[in-house]
Amino acid sequence: MSHKTIYSSLLFQAPGVLKKELLEYLRPRRTIQRSSYSSQHGERRGRIPGASLMTIVSCAAILVTLPTMAQKSLPTPGSTWGEIRFPGSAQPEDSENLILEGAAEQGVDFFPITKDTVLNFFGRVDYALDTEGLDWNRKLRLGAGVKVRHYLSNTAVIAVGVKYEIDRRFVDDRTMDGFQLFSNWFGSWQLPDSHHGSSDQLRPLAYPGLTWGEVRYPGSQDPVESDDIIFEGYTEQGVDWVNWGRWGTFNFYANLDYIVDTEKLEWNNSIAYGVGVKLKKVIGSNVLLQFGIEAARERRWVSDQTEDVIFVYLNWSGWWDPRAIRLDLPE
User: Fold this and answer.
1) 177: buried, middle or exposed (CB in 10 Å: 19+, 13-18, 0-12)?
2) Which of 101, 113, 230, 279 is most exposed by smallest CB count within 10 Å?
3) Burial 152-165 (b: 16+ CB within 10 A, else e)
4) Higher per-residue pLDDT: 280 or 23
5) Spatial separation of the C-alpha atoms in residues 102 and 327, rounded to whole Å
6) What gap in Å lies between CA 310 and CA 318, rounded to an integer?
């Protein structure tokens, strides 16, 4: 698979069944493969602009001070994910690269618009580090924003929002910042089991699947994507086959990974498909660990390039809601 960016809005904090489904099936994506042009043409090199920093601080202050409809307790959903993988992507420059990447998001559900719709303010941090010192793989991104999140069902959710982010690239010593509009969605399912109730110990345990997608503008804060609209998504269908006791459950899966844009940039126009096996281990009720191996093929049609790769990875994800913010407002 190619590098593709994982955006915070895909880390939904969801009630009921959806929360469990997200924890069970969400796995990290590959981050976007940047061009050499993208790595060499940044702005405001080596510093975080004062106005940008003040915007982040102001957004953080909003998260703890904005009153809401005389509520005494506000839901404060948060989530995190991370992954270590080798190689970094299907591209030749990543063939010997070991990558660590992840994100954490903390939100506050300030205002329930309807029973299934909520206004959420959030802050997040994204990070990436690699062994080869590639600019697009050594970065720290800070962001804050607001989104309207709507639950279509217990296992499907869609969000529309805007965020402000600061993107710090350490190798080229540059900092980029700006706003981004986004809309994204997530859904999960369990295919029906025609052998339900059977005593056959070799039959599959479950058939979990998921899909997610996002459209965003601009594609990123990198100048080369400043006028770019990106649409990307992912679909996975798995089979839980063997429960290995306290070690977890073996899952065999196939996936489809795609991205297109309006600027026809090489790294933003590709499709990848793969098959793999992973061991899933749930810790407590809110943490999921996955260790696996995946064989994938990526097709980039702008450059007419096809690459095959075998990934080895370890990833983790978690969810929480400490409900730490309390407002002492009159009844």
Assistant:
1) buried
2) 113
3) eeebbbbbebebbb
4) 280
5) 32
6) 26
The helix/strand count (H/E) of the chain reads as 3, 12
Q: How far apart are CA 168 and CA 163, in angstroms?
A: 16
Q: Are 266 and 277 in contact (CB under 8 A)?
A: no
- Whole-number Cα distances in Å, 297 to 8, 80, 178, 238, 292: 26, 28, 34, 18, 17
DSSP state letters, 184-241: EEEEEEE---TTTT---TTS-SB-EEEEEEEEEESS-SSGGGTT--EEEEEEEEEEEE
Domains of the chain by range and CATH? Answer: 8-320 (2.40.128)
Amino acid at 301: W
| Distance, CA of 278 to CA of 161 (rounded, Å) | 33
Q: How far apart are CA 304 and CA 314, in angstroms?
A: 31
Q: What is the mean pLDDT of residues 151-173?
A: 94
Q: Is the pLDDT of residue 267 over 70?
A: yes
Distance of alpha carbon 5 from alpha carbon 215, whole angstroms:
12
CB distance 42 to 172 below 8 Å: yes
Contact 104, 127 (CB under 8 A): no
Distance between start and end Cα atoms, the chain? 54
Give the residue among 256, 249, 252, 176 at the shortest CA–CA distance from 211: 256
Angle at 305 between CA 301 and CA 309, to 5 degrees: 120
Q: What is the mean pLDDT of residues 192-215?
A: 78
**β-bridge pairing 117-130 and 156-169:** unpaired
Distance CA 21, CA 26 (A): 8
d(CA 240, CA 252): 7
Amino acid identity for residue 30 in this structure: R
- Quick one: pLDDT band at residue 107, thresholds 50, 70, 90? very high
